[in-house]
Amino acid sequence: MKKVLSINSGSSSLKISLFAMPTEQRLAKIMVDYSDETNQLVAITLPNHELIVQHYHNKLSPVELALKLLTKHKVINNPQEIAAIGHRIVAGGELFQRSIEITTEIMQKLESINELAPLHNPANIAGILDAQQLLPNCPQIAVFDTAFHTDLPPENFLYALPLEYYRKYRIRKYGAHGTSHRFVAQQAAKMLHLPLNELKLITLHLGSGASVTAIKNGKSYDTSMGFSPLTGLMMSTRCGDIDPSALVYLLKHHVFSDMNECMEILNKQSGLLGVSELSKDMREIERASTENPQAALAIKMFVKRVCDYIGSYWLELGGADALVFTGGIGENDCHLRELISERLSCLGINFQSQQNQSRDLPFDFASTDSQARLLVIPTDEELMIARDAYSLLSSKQLCNQTAVNY
């Protein structure tokens, strides 16, 4: 048995899970909210499913705090027990098309592409540096959200710009959420009792960040996010698709002081928050929607954009065996799932309203006569990270053993 730590670092929060591999038993799960550096909110779920929530009034780094908690609660006796650490990296560009062990050279390459995901990659790299300092002899593995989308055909990843921009600057669609889309696609194949490489799926990762992916024969065929995680669907604070001319117009009229302010508003003040002028949280918006027209409008816009992409990918794939809902909204919001599903009746997609309200994940809420199954599958990016880290660790050890024997 090998203990593998999965680290999912965000700009103000961190999710860590410790797994026993290859059994995939989750030994502990830790959530750290460090938006307030002097008062970190920490939740740890232990093997007996006991949940402990507390505040830490100190300046420990999030990874250091996580290791301290794992030791304190006797999940591990010593951090040296950890055999490998896997890190989620949002954007790998064209430099990284698979998970890889992190070396000094790899770190330099990672830092060179921070601009592809300025809200995410720097936080991901901070988590790596933190873990390297605390456990310098432990293999560190980078798992890229964009890697799953490297098989997109050129007609789907290229923009209709002068091709020189792609050749020289690699301007193209990279996608995101690939770790999540890959995981739920594998789980969907298990639920349907069919090989993944024979399926056509449309996976919907709907959460604070949101994206839709068309999956054909086990590979990403098209995806809604583009050069950065800003484009595609309307999200909690991100605008999604927008005519670039509108931004040029606003810049000319000095609505933004500079491009930095423009990007700040597009990333952090738009989407559900921008339209509702109430909240970035879909739950709060839904509660207010019966009396607040802007909240109701935000929901309608969100649902429309999701369905626009489903319709587009339905045509691209020539139909689909299943639609898969995941992410915070996709897994938990039966009302939003119903609103989306109602608009898909023209495709022959029908659902059971009562089954859609099930809390027993995963489940299928499609009617027996539906042209596609409607699956609700909880994502588990940390497990996907652990699988990749363990696979690379095993390959490395096998190579070393082979070299010695030879």
TrEMBL record:
Cofactor(s) essential for the protein: Mg(2+); Mn(2+)
Site (Transition state stabilizer) residue list: 177, 238
Entry GO CC: cytoplasm
Location relative to the cell: Cytoplasm
Enzyme class: transferase
EC identifiers of the protein: 2.7.2.1
Reaction it catalyzes: acetate + ATP = acetyl phosphate + ADP
Pathway noted in the entry: Metabolic intermediate biosynthesis; acetyl-CoA biosynthesis; acetyl-CoA from acetate: step 1/2
Active site, UniProt feature: 145
Binding residue positions for ATP: 15, 205-209, 281-283, 328-332
Binding positions (Mg(2+)): 8, 381
Keywords, alphabetical: ATP-binding, Cytoplasm, Kinase, Magnesium, Metal-binding, Nucleotide-binding, Transferase
Biological-process GO terms, alphabetical: acetate metabolic process; acetyl-CoA biosynthetic process
Entry binding sites for substrate: 88
Cofactor binding remark: Mg(2+). Can also accept Mn(2+).
Keyword flag Lyase: no
GO terms, molecular function: acetate kinase activity; ATP binding; magnesium ion binding
Subunit details: Homodimer.
Family: Belongs to the acetokinase family.
Function summary: Catalyzes the formation of acetyl phosphate from acetate and ATP. Can also catalyze the reverse reaction.
UniProt protein name: Acetate kinase
Organism, scientific name: Liquorilactobacillus hordei DSM 19519
Gene that encodes it: ackA
